[in-house]
Amino acid sequence: MADKITQRNDDKHVQNREETRSGEHYIRPAVNIIETEYGLTLTADIPGAAKEKLEVKVEKGILTISAPAARTMPGKPVFKEFETAPYYRQFSIPEVLDHEKAEADYANGLLTLKIPKAKAAKPRKIEIKVG
Amino acid sequence: MASWDVMRELDNLKREIDEAFRGGGYGRFPHEGPFLPPLTARRFPLVDVSEDEGSLYVDVLVPGVDPAGIDLTLVRNTITISGERKPFAPQEGQIVHRSELGSGKFSRTLDLSVDVDSNKIKAHCKDGIMHIVLGKAQHAKPKKIEIKQS
């Protein structure tokens, strides 16, 4: 199970598919997830990832963000403070979201993913007539 | 050629001690984590530095920052990188499920170990990483001296 997209906790008792990726080193990107009445907006920092190779997919209710990233610096290193490694993170997304209509945008190392809510899940205003 | 540079070792030691006192002295990349977290004693942005005979290379991690808003200035042999990552505009009726990304102003000054030529600096931003190439000043480049036989 991946983290629930709309939950703040990181359940440790369920096995995470992220954790089974033991063989390779990867970075779990930091994200913001904001919900409005229209849908969810997910923003993730994935600096160094190329737009063409960025992969966002939804499969069996699991949203996966993965992006290969590698960087080499010329010359000999003087000091290093950060590294570039492939990014990988998963979320389970509720069915109320219409992921078919999701839109993704990538600029300056920031991925923005907008997933609208399915029609049935949008709040409906019910007018009450006072008679 | 493997050489042991005492000054550089001392410089790195100083840096490591500085980092240890900032609370980041664990792991190989103690900085792994979000860019500009709200509470931190670390300096941002993070940089990687390398060099070869003719140039210094600096990679700066600036995800989500508009490259046009980054200031890069050189005074003698110190460069300052400053800018701002704009906070996310709150939307009406929003519910925040996760908020791991930081925002705010950043500024960092790096002392370069060699003199650089101010006319030979190039910087470009790609996918949230700024790559800076600084050409070394002529007198800072290694010079081969011929030895005459007598």
Supply database-style keywords:
heterodimer, A: about 130 residues, mainly beta, Immunoglobulin-like, four-stranded mixed beta sheet, four-stranded antiparallel beta sheet, about 0% helix, B: about 150 residues, three-stranded antiparallel beta sheet, 1 helix, 8 strands, about 10% helix
Tell me about the biggest sheet of chain A? 4 strands, mixed
Shape-level CATH architecture of chain A: Sandwich
What shape does the CA trace of chain B take? Answer: elongated
CATH topology of chain A: Immunoglobulin-like
User: In the CATH hierarchy, what is the class of chain A?
Assistant: Mainly Beta
The pair of chains with the biggest contact is: A-B, 38 and 44 residues
| Quaternary | heterodimer
Query: What is the domain tally of chain A?
Result: 1
Share in β-strands of chain B? 35-45%
Provide the CATH top-level class of the largest domain in chain B. Mainly Beta
CATH topology of the largest domain in chain B: Immunoglobulin-like
Tell me the strand order in the biggest sheet of chain A.
1-7-5-4
Which residue ranges of chain A are poorly predicted, with pLDDT under 50 across at least 5 consecutive positions?
Answer: 8-15
Strand percentage of chain A? 35-45%
How many H/I helices of chain A?
0
The overall pLDDT average of chain B reads 82
Count of individual beta strands of chain A: 9
What are the low-pLDDT stretches of chain B, counting only 5+ consecutive residues below 50? 24-28
Number of strand elements of chain B: 8
Mind telling me which CATH architecture of the largest domain in chain B this is?
A: Sandwich
